[in-house]
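Hello support,

Our group uses your service weekly, and this is the first time we've seen a run hang past the timeout. The protein is Carboxypeptidase regulatory-like domain-containing protein. I'm not sure whether the cause is the sequence or the server load. Input pasted verbatim:
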Amino acid sequence: MNKSKLLGIITCLVLILAGCGGFVYTTVGGTVTGLTSGDTLVLRNDANYTQTLTADGTFSFNVASNGSYAISVLTQPNTVNCTVVNGTGKMTGEAAVKNIIVTCVPNVPIGGTLAGLADSTSLVLVNNNTGLTATVSTNGTFLFGNYVVNGNAYTIAVGIPPAAQYCTVANGTGTANILNTAAALTSVVTCVPAVPVKFTVTGMTAGTILTMVNTANAYADKFSVTLDGTYGFNWSLLNGVSYVAAVDTQPSGQTCKVANGTGVIDFNNPTAAANITVTCAKS
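Update from on-call engineer: The timeout came from a worker crash unrelated to the input. Re-ran successfully.
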């Protein structure tokens, strides 16, 4: 069969389908503006097909000539936030739709300064409004890798402090403002020496999990172990602060009892907070 006959047959089939209520495929798309270097934007349609863009430009999805469509953002870039206009509709013919507009506007970096961190240690900070973290290992300025959408709130807090130190955050709460980005870079994190609270576990059965908690810590400091040994809670404490070590979750088939679990941190006697013992036995 020659090429012209084949094209003729295909054309006839398309016309037959259209006349019988069938459909052909066309495209729906538009333009993206505002992406910056290094950003990746992923768009999705209602059939879960995706388009990935790393620069401003056009995009399109295949849609049936009589079908509905819904284009949305699947993955936002980091430094900008993108919104979709004209993203939903229903095709009324075979002409391509090109009026979807995706506009990306700058996000706001958050960070500040860190002082007092001991050498060869690190500190995990968290933005409590998003749960995203930043690990900082040197004193000086720091920046979260994840920016904040303009107009959204942020709260910088200590997630995991360094061993034998206690860290606090000042000026860590605010609202991201693209007109005043400097305001979101003014948090101050300060770390000072502190006393670790440690416990020694004996008698655990292999394959089980014991979770301990310092119930006197405002951060509900929990620590899970699977083997006998000596461990420290995540948070070291300041002089004069009380601690209460207790079992939060018993290992399966065992009961663990705590001795010397309560006390007050004393910088003149720091080892006292390391004398907590946990003895496990079959229930």
